[in-house]
Design a protein that fits this description.
The protein is of the alpha/beta class. It has six helices and six strands; from the N terminus they run βαβββαββαααα.
Length: 184
């Protein structure tokens, strides 16, 4: 199993953290991982993305241009990375912020209203965990137990009291995928 993922959005949306959580969780499952961030000088509000690879075998290069999965949190990310999804791959996009959804017919396309759900849960900073939960529902490459351990590694200790809220957000993201698939 090798899953090559690009996670993209605006700085401040937790794009890099989401990839880092996946990477730490993968290491805890003794998988090979690669995490390569990319962000503009603006950080918050600028564009950010990271390439995360989780594999059962050695990773030959962290630099790739075609992905099994794209997780896009805004319109510029959909526009930039839709064509980079391998045929048969998946794009999970944040449908609250994306006005022109992906249109390819050779990939699985899943729109998740993560921002709206985060607002309902009264914490907009959990958007990234909602989207991570959606991804893990579609591609369960790592156990929830190890995702939570990865969160403990990524979050500073002063924020560990938020781990239950993050777990709730991850679970809700999985539920939103189910709802999206049944409404089609």
């Amino acid at each position: 199993m090798t899953e090559e993922i690009v996670i993209a959005g605006f700085g401040g949306q937790g794009v890099l953290s989401m990839g880092m959580v996946l990477s730490y969780a993968g290491m805890m499952e003794r998988k090979e991982v690669s995490w390569m961030p990319s962000y503009g000088p603006e950080m918050r509000g600028g564009t950010a993305n990271c390439i995360t690879i989780v594999s059962d075998t050695k990773i030959s290069s962290p630099i790739i241009t075609k992905f099994d999965t794209v997780i896009a949190l805004n319109q510029p990310s959909v526009d930039k990375f839709e064509s980079s999804v391998k045929p048969g791959g998946t794009i999970i996009y944040e449908s609250t912020n994306v006005l022109n959804p992906p249109t390819r017919d050779d990939i699985e396309i899943i729109g998740i209203a993560g921002s709206a759900e985060a607002a309902k849960m009264k914490n907009t900073k959990i958007l990234n965990m909602i989207m991570l939960g959606a991804f893990l529902k579609v591609k369960p490459i790592i156990s929830m137990e190890n995702i939570l351990e990865g969160l403990k590694q990524v979050l500073p200790e002063r924020y560990h009291h938020l781990i239950p809220l993050n777990e709730e957000a991850i679970n809700r993201g999985g539920e939103l995928v189910e709802e999206a698939k049944t409404s089609v």
